[in-house]
Amino acid sequence: MKGLVVVVFVLVILLSAIVIGSQNDGLVTVNYLIAKTQLRISTFMAIMFALGVAVSVAVVSLSWLTLTVKIKRLQQKLRKLQAQEKERR
Length: 89
Hints:
By secondary structure, the protein is mainly alpha-helical. The chain has one domain.
């Protein structure tokens, strides 16, 4: 059920981004470090949205990986302590 709510929420955000983007057809000048270009606002918004999603996924994945490694280490430590406790008895 939780997954369905997340999928619906993401679809609503994507649809609203598409609707807002389609209404913005003006040009904007984008200056990056080595170049300068003109893009439609809708294209620029789509690029920035995709970049934000990519960065968010990378951060969450890194956090998840870090926590997974910590859990594995703690489980190993727990097994070692439980084995030592059994040896004492």
